[in-house]
Amino acid sequence: MILWTVMMFVLAGFVGHHVIHGVPTLLHTPLMSATNAISAISVVGAIVVAGSEYETVRTILGVTAVAAAMCNVVGGFLITERMLKMFKGGGPGPKGGRG
Amino acid sequence: MAPQEQIIEIAYFVAAVLFILGLKLLASPKSARRGMHLAELGMAIAIGGTLLDHHIITYTWIVVGAIIGAVAGIIIAVWTPMTAMPQRTALSHAFGAAAAALVGISHYYSEGANLPVGAMVALGIEVMLGSLTFTGSMVAFAKLQGWLPGMPLTFKGQNIFNLALLAGIVTATVWVIVSPATSTLFYAMVGLALAFGVLFVMPIGAADMPVVIALLNSYAGLAGAATGFALGNKILVIAGTLDGASGLILSIIMCKAMNRPITNVLFGAFGKAPEAGPDSGVKGSVRSMTAEQAAELLAGSESVVVVPGYGMAVSQAQHAVKELADVLGERGIDVRYAVHPVAGRMPGHMNVLLAEAGVPYDKLFDMEQINDDFPRVDVAIVIGANDVVNPAARNNKASPIYGMPILNADKAKSVLVLKRSMAPGFAGIENELFYMPNCMMVFGDAKKTVGEFSTALKQKAKAA
To answer: Were both Cys, which of B111, B141, B194, B211 would link to B90 (CB 3.0–4.6 Å)?
Structure first.
């Protein structure tokens, strides 16, 4: 079982290396907020902690973790979109991109 | 496997595919938004799947946490100005790391003593990385926000102290892995890791923040991946690894762009005290110009390249720069932008600011794309950049920045340097460029000066 996970880790590393190298310098700031939003998938771990009936301490830790991760999910994707919306091409006309 | 679990596994797999596709589409600004929509869909599917988990008994607390987080996320996303993007990024690394650490601590709290060694290794790494990334990112945030001084804060023997602290953390982690029941040591490790994060980022100067942010990005991702190992959750491993790889690649790119090994960035306290060694000896006279004279020079040019730096962000000059480009464009003058990889406080910082001002991205050029063009450029306008255009990097072996790839702004026919005063740049190094015969200084606030250029050019157009 752990072996499968290790394999997954190595393969994801290769895929990450390949995909990230394809992102131009132009978009490195949105890239950072996008990967940050994606890695906030740790919210699923937090959800299980917050929702299972354990001691109060655990619930408090879980709820805090859900809030922190969810902030990154929502905030990360929103801000990435906000940035990407600003990147406009020159357009066909000589006066493209103005205004 | 119960059908429920199968659905969750499939949801995670679909999410992983969508995440990878989403990042893949970031290869071009044209497809990037479509990519983000796919990634968002992936996130929704993964979260939806998780809610089916049979461990979940009550949704109340999940909803409470999710609403608090979502509201905070919306507020931050909507209100953060583009100039503050580095701070926001540092803060989001802190949150991501905190989430990983908290999940790990609660995991240990309830089942610590009974965890198998494999899970305990993952949990130890998760909590250690999560804790130190949390405080490290908070310090980076405070430095970028100006709540802490941007210069390196050091004390004697700091590197040795930090190393000893790190050794202590690793020892404690190994100990807890071997005998998971020693909970005191586990919580001591958390405390030490939190302290280490602070001490680790304190000695790093603000101008080196692009590397630090990228590195903390990587740690936050790896902490997430370790969470995945500890919980046996594959989507966490995949997403965390993608994030970790991204951060690592960006930090390597940043270090290469400064020609400094990462160890120097992390432990060198660069920009601490300008060493009182012999100067490069490039004294000479500095010539300055008024904004009107500079406008005259611009009016007579055919090709202009703007070199933005952190100073442009500080004085919020990006909109004024765009206006100037429009005025010049009306005169048929070609305006392009040359962006150094470490200009600003995070990777891609300048590109985002100029995009915000409405500069089309096909006018933004990387160093390699534009550097050979400078000899054919009539006027290079350096706005708030300093070390990235210092020719000492090319020809002065004694200079601390020797070997760093720089923008060849000095090779342009004329160079206008917009600067507040003659104070040296972050690295505390004299800039030879300012003394070169083709270089003219225009002193004052960058935003104001650029605005004056535009006004003077407009008046000239009216008079003609």
So the answer is: B141
